[in-house]
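Let us work through a complete example step by step.
Step 1: write down the sequence.
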Amino acid sequence: MAQPVHLALEGIQGFGEVEAASQGKLPALIEYGGLRGDLQVQTDWTDGSSSIEAMAAAARKLGLGYIAITDHTRDLAMLGGVDEKRLLEQRDAIRALNRKLRGFRVLSGAEVNIRRDGSLDIADETLAQLDVVGAAVHSNFRLGRPEMTRRVIRAMRNPHVDVLFHPTARSLGHREPVELDIDAVIAAAVRTGTILEIDAMPDRLDLRDEYVRRAVAAGALLAIDSDAHDPSHLRYAEELGVAVARRGWASAANVVNTLPVEKCLARLKGRGGQRTSARSFPTLRPT
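Step 2: predict the structure and record it as tokens.
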């Protein structure tokens, strides 16, 4: 793995680290090099630069064991968003590729759009056939806090949505985060079993460290993803995403993609029932 980049991510304020250290109560933070996979990767099927095969090869070179291909969906037509037919074609292409791979796994997935009313732009029947489903806000960014919060939580209640991608939809230097009751969203994540993402793209870093800390305290599960649109972006999960997680006091047990692929998939709520929260398996460690 590449060496981590050390950044002042969200200012210089602390969260009680000095006091916790003086009392011997610092948590065992997630380590650099601890990620086994990446659950958000885009390809040239939509707005990425490279093929599925190229992204898989680059991830393997970084030491990962799996990636999820999560191209944009129907509503993002300007980015070549895929519909149900194309998603299933891509799923079949991924299955064919996996038959050739040894020691690495490509997961079929999608980054579905959360519409204004909280519905999704891909039918449930198709989502049920994918390995990983992420949902995200890509439009109507200026809704008031109550409406935006209801919108996001409705999407999280969908039994096929595994991960809430870049939860506050911020774009650093371009767009402010949406108005969202983050504590209500975290509570919904625990209640529904939806994983909250730390999107490690440099212009995202979303969830921010303060919200990671709240999610950890509430027992929500996290994923640290690169949101890669090019092979060179894959390193961001390790270099930047882990840094955000550590600032939020996250341990390996809080992050699902520190697990091998089958154990990670078992934590996704679409794999046969709702997941339990991180509080229910405090001894979980990657093996």
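Step 3: interpret the result. The radius of gyration is 18 Å.
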